[in-house]
Design brief:
It comes from Bergeriella denitrificans (Neisseria denitrificans). The chain has four helices and no strands. By secondary structure, it is an all-alpha fold.
């Protein structure tokens, strides 16, 4: 077995790495659930009470609440994804590098 495979196996077996992987998975599933709920709620309102979304924002305007809520759902999804990426590429990447360095015997 070459050195890279041994290092990878040691990293994957490391308790700190496994803990971090569980945290990352829970965070990912949590954000996914929130975004999924947001889309399901939006579609549910469209299907069950479309009159709520076709109401104009102002009495003399043509823009409806549906436009604003639809844009909010999309922006919310982008922001949620951005937060996850920032955490995953920041905190979790740093934790991964610490484990890799400890396995390799580096500081």
């Amino acid at each position: 077995m070459d050195l890279d495979k041994q290092t990878a196996r040691k990293v994957l077996e490391n308790a700190e790495f496994q803990k971090m992987a569980r945290q990352k998975a829970m965070l990912g599933w949590g954000f996914s659930a929130v975004v999924f709920f947001m889309y399901v709620a939006f579609i549910w309102v469209i299907g069950s009470s479309p009159e709520l979304l076709k109401m104009p924002v102002s009495s003399d305007g043509i823009t409806t609440w549906g436009i604003y809520i639809g844009v909010f759902v999309i922006v919310f999804s982008f922001v949620t994804t951005g937060i996850y990426v920032r955490i995953a590429n920041g905190k979790f990447e740093k934790m991964t590098q610490e484990v890799v360095n400890s396995v390799k015997g580096e500081k």
